[in-house]
Amino acid sequence: MVTLAPDRPPPPPSTTSPGPRTAGASTGAVPPSRRRRPQARRVPLGLWFSGSVAAVLLLLAAFGPLITGDTETSHLDQRLYGFGEHGHLLGTDGQGRDVLARVVAGARPSLIAGLVPVLIAAVLGSALGITAGLAGRVVHTAVMRTLDVLYAFPAVLLAVAIGASLGSGVSNAVISLSVVLVPPVARVAETETARLRGMDFMDSARASGAKRSTIAVRQVLPNLLPTIVVYCTALAGLSIVFAAGLSFLGLGTAPPHAEWGLMVNDLRPYIFTDPALSLVPAAAILIASVVCNMLGDGLRDLLDVRREVTA
Question: CA–CA distance from 94 to each of 4, 85, 266 (Å)?
Fold first, then answer.
């Protein structure tokens, strides 16, 4: 005999209310607490270091001559002191002048002759590059072929030739280096402008009827600026070396003023008798050049000029 089991009663209704639905597995949404917020880009350690050294060099250039006082008067009774002798931390040169004081005082003309041409080249080169990149074929050919004539000469020989024709002086050194540095900056600006021309936001600007000058200022320049800043920062190190070379050849700062390249020339006769003394201004040139290169590398990583283009 088969007996049928009685039907089971349904379970009693739950008295607890279902809590609020949480965003997660059921809805597929990410809770606000777990959403990934955009993080600020970290400043590279090399950029902090190079920026600090660059700030010190700029402060020395601005206020160094006020601290050192007279660095041009000769004291023949104190000539060629060694490191730390008679209160001179880095010794004295062949005319008895304190080497440390002259290195500090020489920061101003050295950095002026090295950095001002880069600023001039950044402005003129960017303007020429943007003009050539946005203009027609005739203007592009005229501008770029003219710059190629200057770019074809070795930079050092061209700077020496222009400096020799203009004569010695800081202003003439700035002019000669500006002529040398404009073509490479213009080529970088023209290449970047040509790359930007094919992008959608440029097509939208042209379709809206914007003028070329408006497109250059509002569309091209903001996207071009990070590249120019990084390139010119690294170019400043080369410009400082060129400026020191012109002064070494007598085409820059004239004696008895203090300038790093001129000091290398003044201390050159003592390189075999006192090599450490003659290498002090050369070390200042090296430090300034390396700092500019490190600053350019740090800005490149910070600005990420290889990937970012903002419309």
Answer: 122, 15, 8
258 and 72 in contact (C-beta within 8 Å)? Answer: yes
How far is 12 from 29, CA to CA, in rounded Å? Answer: 33
**Side chain identity at 281, as an amino acid letter?**
P
Would you call 140 helix, strand, or coil by DSSP? helix
What's the pTM value of the predicted model, to 2 decimals?
0.81
Dump pLDDT digits (tens) for 106-151.
999 999 999 999 999 999 999 999 999 998 899 999 999 999 998 8
Q: Is residue 226 reached through a cis peptide bond, with omega within 30 degrees of 0 on the bond before it?
A: no
- The structure tokens listed for 241 are 């070396």
Q: Which amino acid would we find at residue 291?
A: V
CA distance 299 to 229: 8
> SS3 helix, strand, coil % of the chain, rounded to 5?
65, 0, 30
Helices then strands, counting H and E runs in the chain, come out as 12, 0
3-state secondary structure 179-220: HHHHHHHHHHHHHHHHHHHCCHHHHHHHHCCCCHHHHHHHHH
Measured CA to CA, the distance from residue 184 to residue 112 in angstroms comes to: 20
218: DSSP letter: I
- pLDDT tens across 11-63, in order? 555 544 444 444 444 444 445 444 444 455 677 787 899 999 999 999 999 99
